[in-house]
Amino acid sequence: MSSSRTKIVQMGSCPGGLDDCNEQRQRGRQKVHDEATLKARVVEVAFGTFQKHSYNGTTMALVAKNAGISKRTLYELFPSKIELFAELAIRHRANLLDVPAGRKAETLEEALRAVFKVDQSDEKHNQQAAEMRLFYVEAVANEELGMLLRKHCGSELHDVVTAWVEDEVAKGRIVVQSSRDTAKYLLDVLIAARLFRPKTPDMITGLSDIRTYLNHTIQLILNGLLPR
């Protein structure tokens, strides 16, 4: 048989030809995109529900109702309530820092502002503070959640900042006695401080807005308290 008459049939080919294949791939990408969007929306709704009713007072049925989806869809996205809460914690941790931006910074001051997202909007600062308050309350009230939060928002977050500190030491931009102690200090003064910050500025007379406050903190880190 001549090669010109030979037909090659590929496994998984599309009967409708190239256009059909492209359409199927597009639908596949759209499905993945839609699921990611839906997950993000469900996590946002779940946060508000946990905040209002507490973790123990929240059911998956209530989250599904508030999100406008079926319980079946919710369980397909998150098989359990603890996994839904874990996703909230993971997204919170990811939103706290921007280490790649810090690596591009030309000065240590710029790096600190970038890594700890000092210049983000008030809305984002307030959202992060609200999430931290929720986590603080739930970690105390629920031992299982406490372990989960110590992992995702404690030890893993500390490891990320420690690695960044060690990179800065290697660049010769900072000198530290302990990279892990330094990472803990930075987390305490630039992240955890937001947890105990009053919700409204009039509660402490003369308190700066959050961005100014964090910039002042960075100046203390860089220059210390001693007069120069």
Assembly category: single chain
Major β-sheet annotation: none
Q: What is the distance, rounded to the nearest whole angstrom, between the alpha carbons of the first and last residues?
A: 91 Å
Q: What count of structural domains?
A: 2
The CATH architecture category of the largest domain equals: Orthogonal Bundle
CATH topology of the largest domain: Tetracycline Repressor, domain 2
Mean of all residue-level pLDDT scores: 86
Q: What's the gyration radius in Å?
A: 24 Å
Number of helices: 10
Structural class: mainly alpha
Looking at the structure, what is the overall shape?
Answer: globular
**How much strand content do the residues show?**
under 5%
Secondary structure: helix percent: 55-70%
The count of DSSP E runs of length 2 or more, i.e. the number of strands, is 0
Q: What is the CATH top level name of the largest domain?
A: Mainly Alpha
Order of helices and strands: HHHHHHHHHH
Low-confidence regions? 1-13, 26-30
Give a written overview of the molecule.
The chain is mostly helical and 228 residues long. It folds into 2 domains: 21-79, Arc Repressor Mutant, subunit A (Orthogonal Bundle), CATH 1.10.10; 85-228, Tetracycline Repressor, domain 2. It is built from 10 helices and no strands. The protein has helices at 18-53, 60-67, 71-77, 81-96, 99-104, 108-115, 122-141, 143-171, 179-190, 210-223. α8 packs across α9. It starts with 17 loop residues before the first helix and ends in a 5-residue tail after the last helix. The model is unreliable at 1-13 and 26-30 (pLDDT under 50).
